[in-house]
Design brief:
The protein has 622 residues and is α+β, with helices and mostly antiparallel strands. 38% of the residues lie in helices and 16% in strands. The protein has helices at residues 13-21, 139-147, 152-162, 176-190, 193-206, 227-239, 288-301, 318-327, 337-350, 355-369, 374-384, 390-408, 410-415, 430-440, 448-470, 501-514, 527-538, 580-588, 603-610, and strands at 5-6, 40-45, 63-71, 78-85, 92-99, 106-113, 211-215, 221-224, 245-252, 259-266, 275-283, 310-314, 332-335, 542-545, 550-554, 560-564, 570-571. The strands form 3 sheets. It has a 7-stranded mixed β-sheet, with helices on both faces. A hairpin with a 6-residue loop joins β9 and β10. α7 (288-301) runs parallel beside α8, α9 (337-350) runs antiparallel to α10 and α15 (448-470) packs antiparallel against α16 (501-514). It is flat. Keywords: Metal-binding, Zinc, Zinc-finger. Residues 561-590 form the SWIM-type domain. GO terms for molecular function: zinc ion binding.
Length: 622
């Protein structure tokens, strides 16, 4: 890399100004100077590419920022920054100079002192592999990663493929994990968490009774589910008496900065045996009390969970199992074999086991699971214990024994009529629904409020499909033995809100594409609200009353709201800001979404609006 000048002492202000004003652009560089030595000065330029104006900082060294000065103090013409090396004895310095005049795109970077033996150090936030050196990425690279659309692996490959052999470390993505982290950073910056919390609170009112409970302290909990679906499940337990009805609990990860727990069931009336979502919970921790509160709330809505032919399946997580046993003490509970295998693999890897160790113990446990009687199980266990290590034997007795003998063994499964003892209950039915959900959200992290709306539409889709199936319509077909449970299409009521998974996928894509980089002072209306406003037009839920100068909008819960756009935008719903009804009315007459400035997100006002007009009781303030 071309050295612009050499000097073993600091440039004076006059010298720096003279060098910059008479800069020789042919000797300028457009990338950070790597392996710079004391006395060397480089002229960096970002002419024609404003995004790269800070790339000179990513020179491979780890620095302390020592301050910024404008010189001279009166009528300054030059900006000077100071940096001191973080490694070695700290006697290596970097000085940068840039003219303050408008349009200046050249920066003079000067290195002085003693060159350290160690250039960089480990990243301060690293918890593992702390000896791994951290090389700073160019700021322009991080900006580009945030602007790129697509999955992390696709973005990583696309940027790396565009690179050349001349690219230095820091100008290409470090790994896929860095791309993931930058995408997360972008999402957090573009949607304040308070705004997401407000959106969910607003949807509690707009979606009728879909959201049962919304708690903010001490942890965020959102419990929800369509009550029509709970009624359909209760009808199923009354209709199917000779076969078990499998209900499954599972927690999904990687959808955002929260967990999604879902309860699903297998609908035995239909030949396809579809997996149907029953209820959901968004939560920020995985404690027993969280699961207990969710299941207890669900029990208040669905009263036939403890029916004798209901089988509750879950993973091997202790807090979930304890919550199920506590809330539904009489329900039959089973554990999936796959989760036992997964936990076993994790334990062996954590304790330094090899692949042969993993295969050996997996075969041992599977052989025990396949025992078709309790007597055979204990006999085989007695023989196998002799070949187990002391650590594994302790793990088995503490974590696996009770789970296998009471909830996962073949004789228990066969007794409950789930499967033949040879195959076992291997794959969770929740995985079927999780795969649909992840396909719908395109494997990306999404805002909590957006996911609430997606789950609302997704469950409405399943409610409609079940009712259509009983009317001999749609994708589900009644089994011959359950023909008596057919319904007349003229006597049933279908949900007014109807979106297919493909429609929801488009909704998510719109939400993702709407989150383009904008000024912090002019955030757009929620992309969820924009998409929902457009959906109101598609459903023909907006009617103009010219004589009154208002729009009448039918909301998700069936309620009607009056929307006025002129002279001031106003809606009769409880929202304290530009709501989806106003956005829908604007879109109906061809008006774009407003570019509103920062407005106070007032949860107190929204909560007050949702209360009844008058409180009960006879007490009045004096």
């Amino acid at each position: 890399m071309a050295v612009y000048a050499n000097k073993n002492s600091m440039f004076s202000i006059q010298e720096a100004v003279l060098l910059l004003k008479n800069a020789n652009i042919t000797k300028a560089v457009r990338k950070a100077a790597t392996n710079a030595k004391p006395g060397e000065a480089y002229l960096f330029t970002y002419a024609g590419n404003e995004e790269k104006k800070d790339d000179w900082r990513a020179d491979g060294y780890a620095w302390f920022h020592g301050g910024l000065r404008r010189w001279p103090k009166t009528d300054p013409v030059l900006r000077k920054t100071y940096h001191r090396i973080r490694t070695g004895n700290g006697n290596f310095h970097r000085y940068s100079y840039q003219l303050l005049e408008s349009g200046s795109t050249e920066i003079l970077v000067h290195y002085l002192g003693e060159q350290p033996t160690e250039k960089s150090i480990s990243h301060g936030n690293r918890l593992r592999n702390i000896d791994r050196e951290h090389i700073r990425s160019a700021p322009s690279l991080l900006k580009r990663i945030r602007m790129e659309k697509g999955k992390p692996m696709s973005v990583y490959r696309r940027i790396c493929n565009e690179g050349t052999m001349e690219d230095i470390a820091g100008t290409l993505p470090r790994d896929v994990e860095q791309v993931k982290n930058q995408q997360k950073y972008k999402q957090r910056k573009e949607c304040l968490i308070q705004d997401d919390i407000y959106n969910v609170f607003e949807y509690c009112d707009l979606l009728g009774q879909f959201v049962w409970s919304y708690t903010l302290h001490p942890d965020v909990l959102v419990m929800m589910g369509d009550r029509k679906m709970a009624t359909l499940f209760e009808d199923l337990t009354r209709s199917v008496k000779d076969k078990p009805i499998l209900v499954s609990y599972d927690t999904t990860f990687n959808l955002g900065d929260y967990y999604l727990s879902s309860v699903v069931f297998q609908h035995e009336l239909f030949k396809e045996s579809p997996v149907i979502p029953l209820c959901f919970m968004l939560h920020t921790n995985k404690k027993f009390l969280t699961y207990w509160a969710f299941l207890h709330s669900f029990k208040m809505i669905c009263h036939r969970m403890e029916n004798k032919n209901v089988i509750f399946a879950s993973d091997s997580e202790t807090s979930i199992q304890e919550a199920i046993d506590h809330v539904f003490p009489t329900v039959k509970r089973v554990v999936y074999w796959n989760y036992i295998r997964q936990d076993l693999k994790v334990w062996i890897k954590k304790h330094g086991g090899t692949n042969s160790d993993s295969n050996f113990y997996l075969d041992e446990i599977v052989e025990l699971l396949k025992c078709n009687t309790k007597q055979i199980f204990h006999e085989k266990l007695r023989l196998k214990r002799r070949n187990w290590s002391k650590a594994f034997l302790q793990y088995y007795e503490q974590e696996l024994h009770e789970s296998i003998i009471y909830h996962a063994s073949s004789w228990i499964l066969e007794k409950n009529g789930i499967v033949e003892y040879v195959t076992g209950i291997t794959t969770s039915i929740s995985e079927s629904f999780n795969s649909i959900l992840k396909r719908v959200v395109e494997q990306q992290e999404i805002q909590m409020a957006c996911l609430v709306m997606c789950l609302y539409h997704l469950q409405n889709y399943y409610v409609r499909e079940i009712i259509n199936g009983q009317c001999h319509l749609g994708n589900y077909h009644l089994k011959d033995i359950y023909r008596s449970h057919s319904k007349d299409k003229d006597t049933v009521t279908l949900p007014k809100e109807y979106c297919t998974p493909e429609d929801i996928e488009k909704f998510i894509r719109l939400h993702s594409d709407s989150n383009t980089s904008k000024s912090k002072m002019e955030p757009p209306p929620s992309a969820c609200n924009i998409a929902e406003g457009q959906a109101l037009i598609k459903r023909q839920s907006i009617v103009l009353l010219p004589s009154l100068g208002i729009f009448v909008v039918q909301g998700h819960s069936g309620d009607y709201y009056n929307v006025r756009l002129f002279p001031e935008e106003k809606c009769s719903c409880n929202s304290t800001r530009t709501c989806l009804h106003i956005l829908g009315a604007r879109d109906a007459v061809g008006m774009p979404p407003p570019n509103i400035g920062i407005k106070t997100i007032n949860l107190t006002t929204l909560a007050r609006n949702r209360r009844r007009k008058a409180r009960s009781g006879r007490k009045f303030p004096c």
